[in-house]
Design a protein that fits this description.
Layout (H helix, E strand, L loop, with lengths): L4 H7 L11 E6 L3 E6 L2 H7 L9 H17 L6 E13 L9 E11 L2 E10 L2 E14 L4
Antiparallel strand pairs: 1-2, 2-4, 3-6, 4-5, 5-6
Length: about 140
Amino acid sequence: MKNARFEIERVLAHRPPFLFVDQIESCEPAIRATGISGRIREKLEVLGWRVPFVPSWYLLELMAQVGAVATLSNRNGCEKTLMTGIDHFHYVKLVDIEQVLRAEVEILSFRYGMGKRRGRVFSGDDLIAEATIRFAVITGDAC
C-alpha cells in the first residue's frame, strides 16, 4: 500500500518540519508497517541540525511515526499515539544525512491502550538502528 501525504497526515498529528515519514511502503494494520524518509538534510537544517550524521532522536521518532501508522491506520482517525518509553535502543552505524532511510516497525503487543513496538531503520541493506518502543493510544478532543 502506497499512502499519499494526506493519508499519512490523516493518521499522524505531526506536520513539517516534524513529520519525518514521507511514504508508507507497506502496512498491515495493527501488525506492521514500513516507511521511507528522504530529504533528511533539509528536514534537519530547518530544525537547526548542522552535523552530517542522522541523530538518534530522528531515528527513534521515525520508528515511532511509522509504528503509529501501523497502529492507527484502520482506526477512526480520532486517536493518536504517544511514545511512553524506550526499552532498548542500539545505534548500529552512523548514517550520512543525504541517505534515504527505511523504517520497519512491528507491533509486539497492544492491550488496554498501551503497547510495545520493535523498529529497525535501514539505509539500503545496512541496519542503522533498532529499538523497542512503548506507546499509548489516546483519543483526541475533537472526537
